[in-house]
Amino acid sequence: MITAERKPLEELIEYVKPYKRILLLGCNECVTVCAAGGRKEVGLLASGLQMAMLKAGNSIEIREHTLERQCDPEYVEELVPMIDQAEAVMSMACGCGVQQLAMRFKDKPVFPAVNTKFMGASERQGVWAERCQGCGNCMLGETGGICPIARCAKQLMNGPCGGSANGRCEIGEDVDCAWQLIWDRLKALGREESFIEITPAKDWRAGGGGGPRKIIREDLAE
Amino acid sequence: MEKFEPVIVAFCCHYCAYTAADMAGSQRLPYPANVKIIRVPCSGKVDALHMVKAFEKGADGVYVAGCLEGDCHFKNGNLRAARRIDYVKSYLEEIGIEGERLQMVHVSAGMGQRFAQIASEITEKIRQLGPSPIKTAAGAAGEAVC
Amino acid sequence: MKTESNLEKVLAAGHLAVTSECGPPRGALPDEVVTKSKYLEGFVDAVNITDNQTAMVRMSSFAASVITRQQGLHPLLQMVTRDRNRLAMQADIIGAYSLGIDTILCLSGDHTKFGDHPMAANVHDIDSIQLVQMVRQMRDEGRFQGGAEMKGPPPKMFIGAAANPFADPFELRVMRLAKKINAGADFIQTQCIFNIDKFEKWMEGVRARGLHEQCFILAGVTPIKSVGAARYMKNRVPGMDVPQEIVERMAAVPKEKQADEGVDICVETIERLKNVEGVAGFHIMAIEWEEKVGEIVKRAGLYPRPQV
Fold it and tell me: What residues form DSSP beta bridges with C149?
């Protein structure tokens, strides 16, 4: 999922201070899973914002609503009946959702309530870790299912470097050395000899080096 | 000058804290009427939203009462509650409410005396802190809060 | 002979080679580079010029190499993949060659977290092994990494890479050396050696694969300045193996004598390593202590340097 974390409350207060009526939007997908911007977090933020504004001598009306997703225009369209009552919109979705709203409602100020972080997976309840950087040319089949681009601090494709110690990365005790993980997997799969093959320099165009990316499915797009 | 009477919301778990409150009642052990008890199946059921909303609706203090460590009927609901309360405390600070207005306490079902004592102690503590800054601001703005 | 590199000539002639290191200054201070190189003159066959070492901004390796070349020494251009993409690296390589630099060491580089710009991006467009491949393609095929032909004569760079027999996982370290040699490494400089037993074990694996005959291995050594330095290297530098006996040996000596003891250990290490089959020379890393290199080289019986 895409992970995110709520921005500090004082930043959000700065955004909404000029307004009397805002729409606070949650998203039922990724940000719900990482407890950053789902229905519950919308409730928490609305309550907190209202109290903080009250304390500062202002009042604000916050309408709470959560969409199934904010990255699909069909869902964003559901907001049409309620958008006029709002002076501004604050979205708890990832950057994709926030931008979708801004594109649809061109004359409404749209503010992000979270900082979008990374594509990751749950390690255990409450802990999410980076797993994928969307490099566009997946090599997980060759590296025993561990990604050296997302999980190696130096994105080495022929690692490990000389800083790997006790299975940990040189940057910190809490970071696994991705290449140690890859090596352990290759051993478990009986594929140690594949380690000797050199992965050649990557074509970064697939990974965004060629500019913002787009996928067009001819069979699906009108 | 009226003495400030704080409004305290106490979320009490059915198996331990609420039973202790019951015992205090049946033993005629007095505790302040400031404390409004809300029975929940487990302290772990109390959501961050419940705690925050309690302050929004005008509580001056909130506490969550759960079982003693190791005794939770649902294994570790009381531990989750304790972690959650730490999290909400820092959120309260961000909002501008003193984190000490919220706390976690642990009692067992037979501790009627202790329950009454906690209720009194917390009421006094919150009385010292004064009305919640939200209530003060709402009052100043002439808005009803509850 | 693949290049005109002095280091290659010394090694190809069968002598034990000696290299050392010079860290450029954290400012536009060319005289400092000159001073450091003067300490090494006559004692080394090539001098490594480090590249933003420990991710701290310093005068570029390129510029400092040029200054060193102007002093008549043979600079070894260190290049990390952390700070520049493949265009910039190829541009620097042909630029350096045009200014008389013919030896290069390909490295990944320490993470920016350790340096004075932790907020900077870690580029790593390519990694150190891909860099070795790229330089080899430039030299042996006269083509850029993207495939286009270079104009004029190809840069005849003597290509080096680093090896760390002490990093984890140990079982991988021989295969990693093989990978670097397959990519095109002509010579290797190792991380500094204190645990000679572990180094010998690594060399066994190296010899078993015949790698010592496919490239020249220079054993890294460092004189320790104090017991504090020994402890620091032991506990805080990733990939360094400093046995407890070394720390105790340093601790057993009074403070004023510790530097001398460190130099003694260094010379003894070189003498022991001379007997390890496959060691083709020594890389003496005397960081901010360049003035000791001459003494070490002399006491280890490696002076004068052969004129090839």
Answer: C143
Report yes or no on whether pTM surpasses 0.80. Answer: yes
Beta strands in chain C (DSSP E): 17-22, 46-49, 75-80, 103-107, 158-163, 187-192, 216-221, 279-284
Structure letter (DSSP) for residue B78: H
CB contact under 8 A, A44 and B96: no
Q: What is the DSSP letter of A165?
A: B
Alpha carbon distance B47, B56 (integer Å) = 14
Minimal CA–CA distance to C49: which of C17, C72, C19, C29? C19
Residue the block writes with tokens 């977090």: A41
Q: C42: distance to nearest CA of chain A, Å?
A: 31
Dig out the tokens for C4 from the structure: 């005109």
Task: Tell whether the model's pLDDT for residue C72 goes beyond 90.
Answer: yes
How many residues are there in chain C? Answer: 308
Token couple for A29 = 């997908």
The CA-atom distances, in angstroms, between B16 and each of B38, B62, C206 are 13, 18, 68
A126 at B interface, C-beta within 8 A: no
Q: What distance in Å separates the CA atoms of residue C9 and residue C45, rounded to the nearest whole number?
A: 9
Q: How would you label A47-67 residue by residue, b for 16+ Cβ within 10 Å and e otherwise?
A: bbbbbbbbbeebebebeeebb
Report d(CA C177, CA C164) in Å as an integer: 9
Question: Between β-strands B35-40 and B61-66, what pairing exists: parallel, antiparallel or unpaired?
Answer: unpaired
CB-CB contact of C196 with C241 (8 Å): no
**Predicted local distance difference test score (pLDDT) of residue B146:** 46
Q: Which chains pack against A, by 3+ Cβ pairs within 8 A?
A: B, C
pLDDT tens sequence across B67-88? 999 999 999 999 999 999 999 9
Cα C86 from Cα A161, distance rounded (Å): 19
d(CA C36, CA C24): 9
Output DSSP code: residue A205: G
Task: State percent of chain C over pLDDT 90.
Answer: 92
Q: What is the rounded CA–CA span in Å between residue C261 and residue A120?
A: 51
Tokens at residue B52, please? 């925050």
Find tokens 């990494």 and name the residue: C145
Which of A153, B39, B129, B78 lies closest to C108 in space, CA to CA? A153
| pLDDT attached to residue C146 | 96
Quote the pLDDT of residue C236.
80
Tell me the shortest Cα–Cα distance from A196 to chain C, in angstroms.
Answer: 6
Token representation of residue C253: 């000596």
Distance CA A221, CA C100 (A): 58
Q: What's the mean pLDDT when you consider all of chain C?
A: 95
Tokens encoding B71: 């005794």
Residues of A in contact with B101 (CB under 8 A): none
First-to-last C-alpha distance (Å) of chain C: 13
From C168, C164, C101, select the one nearest C135 (Cα to Cα): C101
Q: CB–CB of C179 and A177 under 8 A?
A: no
Tell me the DSSP string of B103-127: EEEE--TT-HHHHHHHHHHHHHHHH
The residue of chain C with its CA nearest to that of A184 is: C169
Q: Are B14 and B39 within 8 A, CB to CB?
A: yes
Task: Give residue B4's identity as a one-letter amino acid code.
Answer: F
- Among residues C104, C96, C91, the alpha carbon closest in space to that of C158 is found at C104
The CA-based angle C70-C75-C78, given to 5 degrees, is: 135
Q: Report which of B29, B62, B31, B69 is spatially closest to residue B47, judged by C-alpha positions.
A: B62
Cα–Cα distance, C90 to C97 (Å, whole number): 11
